[in-house]
Amino acid sequence: MTHVVRVLVADDQKVVRDGLALMLGLLEGIEVVGTAIDGADAVRQAASAHPDVVLMDLVMPTMDGVEATRRLARIPDGPRVVVLTTYADDDWVFRALRAGARGYLTKDASAEDIHRAVITVAAGQAQLDPAVQRRLLEALAAGASVAVTGVRGGFSPDVGLTHREVDVLRHIADGASNTEIADRLCVSEATVKTHVSHLLAKTGCRDRAALVAYAFRSGQTPHV
Question: 156 — phi, psi (to 5°)?
Fold first, then answer.
């Protein structure tokens, strides 16, 4: 890793906030540039500390994490948001994604999970907890109106995907990581990354969350 990712931690509980800051400070390639006590404090500090990523709780006083995420998303070249919360019900998930969150983890996530999400989101991709990604797909399948950000222009299923790109898309919709997809398809992880890049370019999707929505709308849902 050549770039150190600057992280701001936002959580209203001091023990959680301090614990996350300590843990993140021990991880390779991450520098903690501040801790915020609520969403409003996170927005203020982001303006001066210029973090790459804000690790954001959702339920906080003064300003919750959803509104803070929405305001941070409006900042040109502003920080990307990874939600880390105890709340994984549909309402919170979809509100956070609509507001512009690029990552969503629950607080039972491991240090490795958090590290991966921060690095992935800082690189411009999305990282959703597999359970959250499945919930998104299920909601789409049930006909829910889920406005996932990241799709440019209108939806068009005919974008010339190859058979292997369709396979990769189905595995993404199933919540699989690049490593897991590589194992399932017996190819290298580099090959999977190439297919994902082609999928993003062809579909006009911004990230993996948008690809999940695209997979459902195009009928390329995982085989169960």
Answer: -140, 115
